[in-house]
Input
Amino acid sequence: MKTRSYIAKRAVMIIPQLFIVMIITFSLMHFAPGDPVEMFFGGPEGDAELVAQLVEEYGFNKPIWQQFLIWVGKLLHGDLGYSFVTNRPVYRMIMERIGNTLTLMLTSVVIAIVVGIILGTISAYKQYSFVDNFTRVFVVFGTATPAFWIGLMAMLVFGVWLGWLPVSGTMSLGILDKSWSVKLTDRIWHMILPVSILSYRFMATYTRQMRANMLQVLNQDYIRTARAKGLKEMIVVGKHAMKNAMLPIVTIIGMSLGTIINGAVIIETIFSWPGIGSLTIQSVLRRDYSVIMAIVLLLGVMIVFANLLTDIVYSYLDPRIEF
Output
């Protein structure tokens, strides 16, 4: 019951925030000079009558506040509108791509969390060893180097020079007629580069934070007491130290989802991955208002859900925390 009450309170707080974000996004798009009609059908050789007709049809001649209220009214009825460029339902365009984006993001997040926590724990436990020195170099390079540069270098080395991995798309040509096992293998093969690049930066961040937390926890009195009782080192580190060191990591994971989404946009563009990120870039360049608004709303809901999940995990790791 407490969890349900907390979720309800968070919803009451977050809905106005999402509404403000949508207002800002809608305003910024329309304050930019021109509109999609002028971009595609205007110009010296454009048909002025056709332009006027389309402007009237899509409501671009109305005040911004009126256009926004029309969009909100459609949203409340479950209508995300139609793409101006493709004349297809926005909902269908997003559903066709969201699976690819979620696959890329969730796989990257899981790998980053698992490897970051394990590597940070080992690095702290074996402080100043070769593993620790390697980990610190790994962390510095990952946090200081832009993801797009690492992605381009990985494409050049592993895709062009060595020819080991594909550098674009989600599947090879002619793979649809193959068995499910062949298609799954090909899918995983195409995911290696984009998942590795997207997860690397966050893996480095989680490793650095986990190492710092573990160094503090391993010097606490209760850890020395657990060792004095004769507990196995695996239990001392795995059960007592790691659980207490992971609370700050949970915070960072929840806060980094927005950054992960931004990274997905870059990675999807570099590797021609047909997901929400590449659709966002295309829609911004085409000034496809309906698609942009739907994507911003979707990403906002995803970030809210991630923050809510973070709070729930908090209560599991530390029973003293109550909603």
In short: The chain has two domains: 11-76, 97-285+304-317. The longest helix spans residues 180-217.
